Structure formats: structure tokens, C-alpha cells
Amino acid sequence: MMNNIKVERLLVNYKTLEMFKRFKEYGNQELSMLEDLESNIIENDSESPFFGIYYGNALVARMSLYKVSAKYDQYFNPPQDYLELWKLEVLPDYQGRGYGSALVKFAKEFQLPIKTNPRINSQTFWEKMGFQKAKYNMERDLGENPLIWTPKGVAEQSVS
Amino acid sequence: MMNNIKVERLLVNYKTLEMFKRFKEYGNQELSMLEDLESNIIENDSESPFFGIYYGNALVARMSLYKVSAKYDQYFNPPQDYLELWKLEVLPDYQGRGYGSALVKFAKEFQLPIKTNPRINSQTFWEKMGFQKAKYNMERDLGENPLIWTPKGVAEQSVS
């Protein structure tokens, strides 16, 4: 079944933004994209940091991915470019079909370390995907519960 | 009624950590405090970044506060020390009694700007407390929905 799942980069347009409203984690990022589109600060159909999965014409799963530059890396050793992953979400009616896993697998294919700060209670999913808790460091993590995944040869940065 | 509410700094000890388990946002931070206590990395009854309100002997509300140094300030103008506030939470049976407001008022009394990244759907509360949305900047905010409060004479930093 997983073979039929296609992950694609989402374009910023009114249709995408309308579909985003069905997701729980609709917030400042989406509102800001809408404002930028309305005021022509960004072009229609420009690339967004979101990737998603369609079921027919409906967007049913999505995540946001952003490459953080090595100079800001506080998580991995050696310090390097890594991916921040957020807003991984599958609409309730479409859960349990492997869409969440397909998105995470897609992110791993960039072969960069990944950091995410998932909602509490999704621990089991992330463990299954090979993520582990980063050692908590208050100055860096504040209220976050960061989880990390590392490709071969990459270790966690030690924190004081 | 607000006059009877006393906000106090919480000490790290087994009793506090046991009471933290009643809060929804129990995560890496609390687990890390417990490990540090068990392995004597931190002393019993040392100061924590948490402030809370007791009702009798029970901790019924809490928040975490941390002063971020001016050199890391990406939110305020002029750049300055500010407070990051997180895990503001009142136990369900004690909501609607002004405990949340009392905690935020306490934080404001330091007369430093405040930044928080609240859960979605708490918008009304934060507006009532004088907070406003920071202009979203993806590289800085990633998946966050930052809200800020500024004392007189402090403005928001403009972002590109």
C-alpha cells in the first residue's frame, strides 16, 4: 500500500491555504503565508516549506521541513546542516494508513540529521521511526521536547 | 480574590516533581530534572525555572520562566534581555479563578519583554493579558506561533 503514496512539495496558493484550515496546527505560519500572497509579497504557486500527501483532490497529510544551516547547529556532532521538521499531521479520517511514516521516510531521504519537537503522546510513533530524545538542555530547548534522528556517522552534540 | 494568590518559585525536589505529573505538559524538562536529582547533578531543593501557585498543599498552576540574554534577542528593539515563558498551565479543577493571570502578571513585574509560544486556542487569554502576535519569520520561528509582550519603550524587532 505504501507504494501508492506520493509525497509532494506543496505550492503556496489559495487552494493549498484553504486546505490547510482542516489541520489542527493552523497558526501564524499559515496566516503569514496568506497575507504575503494577498499583498503579492510572494507569488502564487511559489514553493512552500510544506510537503504533503493528496488523497484524490484532498490534502490529507502534511509536514513542514526547513534546512537549518550548520552554523546554527546545536544538536549534532560534527555540527552540520540539518532538517527541522514540524507540523507533521494526518487528518483523523486518514490515520493508520502509513501517511505519517511516508512523510518521515521522505524527510530521511535527504540524508541529513533531523530534529523535531513533537506533541506529547506521539512518542511511540517517533520511536518506531528511529528518533530518540535529545538530552534536554534548558538554555537551548526551553519548553521543547526535542527528538532527533541521525544518519550513519552522525552523533548527538554533547551539551554542558 | 486575586489578593490571596501567592506566586512562588518552585524548588527542585521529589515532591515538586511528583506534583508536576498532574500537568499535561510533563516532558523532557521534568524528566531531565528528575534524572539530575537522582544522580546528584543538582542538589535537592535547588531553584528551578518554575514558578507556581499552591492551593493548600497542592500545586495547582505553574509556568517556566527563563531570561534569554540580549545577544540572542531576535524579537525586541532595542535588542535586550527578555523572558521566555513556557508551560503556563492551570489544573482543570482550578481554572477560571485567576491563577493563570496571576502568573503572567508576576512575569510582567520583572519589567522585561516577554516571549511565549502558547498552544493554539489560548489566543483570547493572551490578548487579554496584553500579548500580541510577533510577525512570523520562518527561519526564526519555524513551527512556533510566538506572542510577545513589551513594557513601555520597547518595540518589536523588524524582521526581513
Automatic annotation (TrEMBL), chains A, B:
Q: Where are the transmembrane segments?
A: none
What is the protein's given name?
A: Uncharacterized N-acetyltransferase SAMN05216243_0617
Sorted alphabetically, the keyword list is: Acyltransferase, Transferase
Q: Which InterPro entries match?
A: Acyl_CoA_acyltransferase, GNAT_dom, YlbP
Q: Which organism is it from?
A: Sediminibacillus albus
Q: Which NCBIfam families match?
A: PRK13688.1
Entry EC no(s): 2.3.1.-
The molecular function terms of the Gene Ontology recorded here are:
acyltransferase activity, transferring groups other than amino-acyl groups
* Keyword Acyltransferase tagged: yes
